[in-house]
Amino acid sequence: MIVYNTKKELARHLDKLREQGKTIGLVPTMGALHEGHLSLVKRSALENEATVVTIFVNPTQFNDPSDLEQYPRTPEKDLKLLKSYHVDVVFMPSVEEMYPEPDSQTFDLQGLDLVLEGAHRKGHFNGVVQIVSKLFDAVEPHRAYFGQKDFQQLVIIRHMVQMMGMNLEIVACPIIREKDGLAMSSRNVHLGVREREIAPFIYQTLTLAAGLKPGLSPDNLKTRVREAFSNQSQFQLDYFEIVEDKALRSVKDWDEGVNKVGCIAVVLGGVRLIDNMFFD
Ligand code: AMP
Questions:
Q1: Catalytic site residues?
Q2: Tell me: the pLDDT tens digits for 202-223?
Q3: What does pTM read for this prediction?
Q4: Which residues pair with 268 in a beta bridge?
């Protein structure tokens, strides 16, 4: 496993792999790695001859400077973890390396970036697209691996690849959860003991909602979920929406011939947590 900090060194290495006809899988991360990230790494290592993991806390996707500052960073631990997997290259660039000049490029994401997370984190997905497109340019992978945990991000990246006519496959990987159902997230380390204890309520409520689906309309189900959270004073519900899995449009009727996803965001003890579940 080789660690590079510059695009130039990375390109030299990857050119050699490509000359040898090797397929390249890319796993973009912001580090503070956990089993969720590692599931993407394992999948890439299974499906490609070489795997590149990137670790970069991308400033342009943070709309809150204190959130960026407090984002967990554990580079040494991350590298140690990755050594036990079939990773060829870890790319850990500096902010200057990825943004030699401020990037003001904006992308038309056809409104996909304005709902759900986008409605609460202005400019977030534009920043995500900025960095992911830069990483795709730097690595030119055959496949790139993303978690369904960040469902909206996945939809937007698929849209970006199509819009820009990029030649790579986007592979969606299932959500990895703690034993009690909490979706793994780098942010979970910020939860206090009490908050960590009650955090599985998010997954429990999603599961309950999926079970109630046959008897309730989407709107009534959303009301039930909102009521459930209003009885839990520690949680502040940012949103719970049931959306169609491609256009992210709110579903009005279960009979619509589309896949439906329940998407949720809550703030618990100052930590923002997101989760989702397919409702089909
Ligand atoms: P992040 O470091 O949070 O930007 O995440 C990097 C990648 O790991 C993204 O594609 C995430 O969707 C994915 N990921 C994060 N948490 C999980 C999880 N619990 N299960 C599956 N994938 C995840």
A1: 37
A2: 999 999 999 999 899 999 999 9
A3: 0.98
A4: 235, 271
